[in-house]
Amino acid sequence: MNPNPLLEFSGLPPFSQLKPEQVEPALDYLLAENRAQIEQLLASNESYTWRNLVEPLESLEDRLERAWSPISHMNSVVNSDALREAYNACLPKLSDYATELGQHEGLFNAFRSIAEGDEYQRLDSAQRKVIDNAMRDFRLSGIDLPQEKKKRYKEIKQELSRLSSRFEENVLDATNAWRKHITKQDELAGLPESALAMAAQSAQGENLTGWLITLEFPSYFAVMSYCDNRALRRELYEAYVTRASDQGPHAGQWDNSENMELLLKLRHELAQLLGFPNYAARSLATKMARDPQQVISFLDELAGRSIEMARQELQELRDFAASALSLADMQAWDITYCSEKLRRHRYDLSQEDVKPYFPEDKVLSGMFEVVHRLYGMTISERAGVDTWHKDVRFFDIHGPRGELRGSFYLDLYARAKKRGGAWMDECVSRRVLSSGEVQTPVAYLTCNFSPPIGKDPALFTHDEVQTLFHEFGHGLHHMLTRVDYSGVSGISGVPWDAVELPSQFMENWCWQREALELIAGHYQTGAPLPDDLYQKMQAARNFQSGMQMVRQLEFSMFDFRLHMDYDPKHGARVQEVLDQVREQVAVVMPPPFNRFQHGFSHIFAGGYAAGYYSYKWAEVLSSDAFAKFEEHGIFHRDTGLQFLETILEQGGARDPMELFIEFRGREPTIDALLRHSGIVA
């Protein structure tokens, strides 16, 4: 029998050796091994301690996660039919295993004996947090339920996992299915050189002449921002906003309507099984927000402070479209285009103007220097690491004394068979092994930026630079942790509405002159970002920030209301809830065929169900945290080290509000967010 690389490796995953047919046998083996070891652990001890129960369990969990992580990751970034089949075959097995552990009476009693016994008093605070979280999670897994309800819980969890995966696949397939081959350049009038070159490169990749437009975000966004051809913008807009739905060019083909209906129905049933009135309340059981009313009040307050400004911005855009662009009837597919023209008119600035100043290597070296100045870390590329694609790079982070703190894979460019968006995920978690050795954390950082074109390096828009800083903030949270137990190290155990704090916090440096001197330099001459361009960027920083704010609030309220107001008698009412929320907070009313919700993977396939508000919630924290740097200096080392020690290194070992107060000296206020967004002076 050939050795299975998923079972053999220690260290980094051997990506080039992983084959879809190895996935299921490896998982079956590991799950069987874990089950046997857990029974043995429980049988061989009279009384339970951290050392004889929690530590060995952590090792079993870690081995399973390290084998599954590269598979799950490759399914997102180099998707194929064979890999998808193997991945989907494993989901119910993993779901069953998790439910089984969560409902295991023997395990529960063993943890309870630690939680209620003398051992608990001997543990440090991070270990206590692991025990407290475990006790909470047993309850959230239905440990207290009668047998037939436990069985139902297990069925629901399995089905939810299958539906989420199906939802994501439908979005990916619908995105990949649509393309438009263009042979006459005048149809693409208005597109900047870089976007034309990217479309030509896409066409060449398919052995076509001319240009190829796709629904991958860099391609879609370029057409929507710059293309003078209104008919093409409308066609592209419709294809994009109807992906995986009952509308548009592929109507009904990968339709997520039923998946959404079932996901919401089952989440509601699950919440009620566990004694919660709805899934929103269940979601908050592991978050900072106290109850659904607090979330609704928070979103309402932000909406109340922003809506007037958003209405004003839209009216200005309508007036400009009518007078300057002869578009008296501005439609949804005109908004990005008209906004770009207005930005150009008002500030003499376009996203394209800054791209030559943000070549990939300059941005990366500058970002690493920012981290060096703040925290004393140095980051260097490591060659020869096995990856899943030729474009992927690998880096190490070393502390001030040269010690290895963490490593990460960087996969920056959009391509077919890769899920859209940007994210950070865990490859290896930090923990201290029984030998006393530290297992160094490793992260995956994934983006979907425009690739290098011809002989030029990849050039980023300023928005893309912010996205990179955002994901790197998550990465630092995962990699710089000092917590020794994987259940609460890095981002593990951090409440979801606090997990965006380090990521949004990092974005602030993309706007600071001192930091831009490090991040920006012309790709041909190395010249720094000219001062007049910087001034224009600053002037335009809060361009349409009211409209952006209410758009994010629309997503957050829609998500929360869907889960809070679900009524089994009436079903999910997805479109109805969305329409109601738009009545309340939206200023732009999309056309009736728009099916944004069918591609809203964050809440239907990601971890943000009844939690999308977390972005705004954490933005209050991150704006207020950054305000301390504004007071002391953006590279003030002591403040940097304080943020490192109180936030980044603590992982999920302590309550995030407690940590925030320790850093800031008080509870957060909303003022800095409103000021940074230009909503108040």
Tell me about this structure.
The protein is an alpha+beta fold. The chain has four domains: 5-102 and 104-140, Endopeptidase. Chain P, domain 1 (Glutathione S-transferase Yfyf (Class Pi), Chain A, domain 2); 178-241, no CATH class; 257-347 and 545-612, Neurolysin, domain 3, CATH 1.10.1370.10; 356-541 and 615-676, Orthogonal Bundle (Neurolysin, domain 3). Helices cover 58% and strands 7% of the residues.
Task: Provide keyphrases for this structure.
681 residues, alpha+beta, Glutathione S-transferase Yfyf (Class Pi), Chain A, domain 2, Neurolysin, domain 3, 4 domains, 5-stranded mixed beta sheet, two-stranded antiparallel ribbon, 28 helices, globular
